[in-house]
């Protein structure tokens, strides 16, 4: 956590969402499902359908019905969906289980800490692993946010080095 998966996914989403018939960013999927269980998953399915179909209300009685609606209503649409902080196969299957649920050219971006979710037989996902920043990149990012300059100001060089070392390459820290 804190390496920048969500930030990268948001940036990609903002950059390319206009290239699709519909788009939806489902943020913080893991905690929504932990809080509400199946009801949270059902709400996420409703959010996905409403956003892509440009409607204010879609009612889903249960997760299985939501799967069926997503598959049926989005099959011909070229969509961009981001499923952020997905933790389980159940969540992924309920929101974007099969490629043929969506039209040709659709893109599904999944952020997860659980790399095993994207591995195994029948899973041909393209993967991008976000790595921690090295010290120099961390210092530059810290400096831009703190001093609005790519390097720390002279009186703050030593403390900036300590802060960046402590953060260990995790931008969120």
Automatic annotation (TrEMBL):
GO terms for molecular function: ADP binding. Residues 1-148 form the NB-ARC domain. One of its GO terms (biological process) is defense response. It holds the Pfam family NB-ARC. SUPFAM superfamilies: P-loop containing nucleoside triphosphate hydrolases. InterPro entries: Disease_R_plants, NB-ARC, P-loop_NTPase. PANTHER family: DISEASE RESISTANCE PROTEIN (TIR-NBS-LRR CLASS)-RELATED, LEUCINE-RICH REPEAT-CONTAINING PROTEIN. This is NBS-LRR protein. It comes from Kaempferia galanga (Lesser galangal).
